[in-house]
């Protein structure tokens, strides 16, 4: 039986993808922080599983990796969709800026950490809801956004890091197709802590954004038949990956910097 693992799977696009793979007969594991929503999903039957975890913490990512690899020798689909925006800069107990920790670092840890099980699947695929070349530039001298914290732009910065993560992963693991998707503005919960002005704007997006079903329909074809080792998608349209946003040298640089950051906190 095929297995799908979906972070940020208790709500929005992640939950819709979880439902879609469940209908296809997959064993589906969703990872999130809402126990109530997780129990909701588990009510669908024996193939629906929920793992509660705060993926902004390095130790929690390792716990999730251990839990998954002990139960599933192969993982067919990995969806990296967890996000939680903050208008004000916050550091995790590990000392990482919160968006960096959740939106980028957890994706780094989980994708590389599950490369073994993914490599044992017949037709594996990784989906990262990242930047798709639409965000940036990377603040190389301030990856933790300590200076001039950009508010809503913090997720955009994380998206630029996710683009480079996809580049490096696809070069190290060419047999595991990696899809980076920017779904556009979708009417989801927009989980986060917002200042008053941003909260007002986000409230409008919750009703004016495209339906979740439309976003899922736009990305599923790329998951079912990834056209390249690395594929970038913007609202259902493939975009080039030979632009500066996907520079292999920058991708290698980010990989080494990330390894150093993790080693410093080991």
Structure report:
This protein is α/β, with parallel strands linked by helices. It has a single domain, classed as Rossmann fold (3-Layer(aba) Sandwich). It contains 9 helices and 10 strands. It has helices at residues 12-23, 35-42, 58-71, 98-113, 115-119, 153-172, 196-208, 212-224, 248-264; strands at 3-7, 27-32, 48-52, 77-80, 85-86, 125-128, 178-182, 192-193, 230-234, 237-239. It has an 8-stranded mixed sheet, sandwiched between helices. α2 links the parallel β2 and β3. The longest helix has 20 residues, at 153-172. The termini are far apart. 43% of the residues are buried.
Descriptors:
8-stranded mixed β-sheet; two-stranded parallel sheet; 15% strand; 266 residues; alpha/beta; Rossmann fold; 44% helix; 9 helices
Instruction: Give the end-to-end Cα distance, rounded to a whole number of Å.
Output: 36 Å
The overall number of domains is: 1
Percentage of β-strand residues? 15-25%
What does the radius of gyration come to?
A: 17 Å
Derived structural class: alpha/beta
The top-level CATH class is Alpha Beta
N-to-C SSE string, H for helix and E for strand: EHEHEHEEHHEHEEHHEEH
Mean pLDDT equals: 92
Indicate the CATH architecture: 3-Layer(aba) Sandwich
Strand order of the largest sheet: 3-2-1-4-6-7-9-10
Low confidence ranges: none
Number of strands: 10
Q: How would you sum up the global shape? A: globular
Summarize the biggest pleated sheet: 8 strands, mixed
**Helix amount, in percent?**
40-55%
CATH H-level homologous superfamily name = NAD(P)-binding Rossmann-like Domain
């Amino acid at each position: 039986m095929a297995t799908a693992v979906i972070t940020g799977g208790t709500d929005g696009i992640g939950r819709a993808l979880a439902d879609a793979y469940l209908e296809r007969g997959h064993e589906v594991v969703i990872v999130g922080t809402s126990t109530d929503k997780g129990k909701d999903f588990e009510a669908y039957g024996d193939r629906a599983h929920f793992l509660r975890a705060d993926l902004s913490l390095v130790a929690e990512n390792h716990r999730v990796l251990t839990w998954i690899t002990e139960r599933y020798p192969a993982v067919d689909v990995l969806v990296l969709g967890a996000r939680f925006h903050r208008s004000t800069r916050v550091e995790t107990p590990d000392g990482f800026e919160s968006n960096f920790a959740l939106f980028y670092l957890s994706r780094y840890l989980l994708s590389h950490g599950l490369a073994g099980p993914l490599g044992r699947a017949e037709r594996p695929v990784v989906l990262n809801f990242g930047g798709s070349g639409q965000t940036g530039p990377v603040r190389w001298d301030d990856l933790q956004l300590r200076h001039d914290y950009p508010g809503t732009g913090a997720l955009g910065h994380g998206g630029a890091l996710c683009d480079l993560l996809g580049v490096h992963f696809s070069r190290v693991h060419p047999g595991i197709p990696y899809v980076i998707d920017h779904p556009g503005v979708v009417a989801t919960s927009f989980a986060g802590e917002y200042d008053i002005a941003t909260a007002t704007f986000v409230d409008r997006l919750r009703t004016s954004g495209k339906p979740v079903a439309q976003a899922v329909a736009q990305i599923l074809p790329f998951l079912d038949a990834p056209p390249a080792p690395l594929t970038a998608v913007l609202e259902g349209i493939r975009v080039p990956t030979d632009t500066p946003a996907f520079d292999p040298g920058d991708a290698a640089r980010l990989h080494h910097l990330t390894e150093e950051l993790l080693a410093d906190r080991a």
